[in-house]
Amino acid sequence: MFKSAALLAVVVLLSTVSHADGNFPKGPDASLTPGALCSRADSYRYPEKIKYCERDVSSSEKAAIFQKYDQLGYRTRSMKRQAFKIDHYIPLCAGGANSERNLWPQHESIYRITDQLEALVCEKMAEGRLKQKEAVALIMQAKNNLDEVPEIEAQVRAL
After folding, report:
1. Residue 28 phi/psi, 5° resolution?
2. Is the pLDDT of residue 5 over 80?
3. What is the pLDDT of residue 3?
4. Counting CB atoms within 10 angstroms of each CB, which of 30, 40, 121, 143 has the fewest?
5. For residues 102 and 91, what is the distance between their CA atoms, to the nearest angstrom?
6. Cα 11–chain centre separation
7. Are 103 and 86 in contact (CB under 8 A)?
C-alpha cells in the first residue's frame, strides 16, 4: 500500500513538473512561425541593402498569436502578459517581417538569452561583416537551440 502511494506521488509530481514546463514555448513553433523576411520595405539598411520593415503589429494580431500558440497546448494567456513579448523570429533589424509567420509569444526567460545576440548580429550586419542569409541562419539556430547561444554569440563576436 505504501509503495503504491509513493509511486502515485512520484507520478503526480512528474506530471506537474512536465506540465509546468509546457506553459510557454521555448522557441518558435515551425508550423506557426517558420520565419519571414520583410517584403514591403520602409527603408533599406546596411551595406547589403536589406529590406527593413518598421515595427507594426496590432494588439489584435498579438492576441491572435497567443491564442494560436495556446491551441498547441501552451498556457500563455493564463500567465502574466508582462512576462511576454511578441518576438520577431527573424528580427526586424535583420530584415524580418511583421507577418504572423514571423511572430511568436516569447517569454522573458527566453528573450533574456537571445536579445543580446540579435543586437550583436545586426551590429555585424551594419559593419558589413555578416550577410543577411548568415545572420538569419544564426538567429534561427539560436532561438531553436538555446543552449548554443553562448557559442553562437562568441562566433559572431569574433567576426
Report:
1. -65, 140
2. no
3. 43
4. 40
5. 9
6. 31
7. yes
Strand partners, 103: 88
Phi, psi (rounded to 5 degrees) for 63? -60, -40
pTM here is 0.85
Helix (H, G, I), strand (E, B) or coil at 157: helix
Cα separation, 149 vs 26, in Å, equals 13
CA separation, residue 99 to residues 33, 39, 57, 115, 151 (Å): 9, 10, 8, 20, 29
Angle, alpha carbons 113-41-89 (nearest 5°): 20
118/141 Cα distance (integer angstroms): 12
Reading the block at residue 127, the C-alpha cell is: 559593419
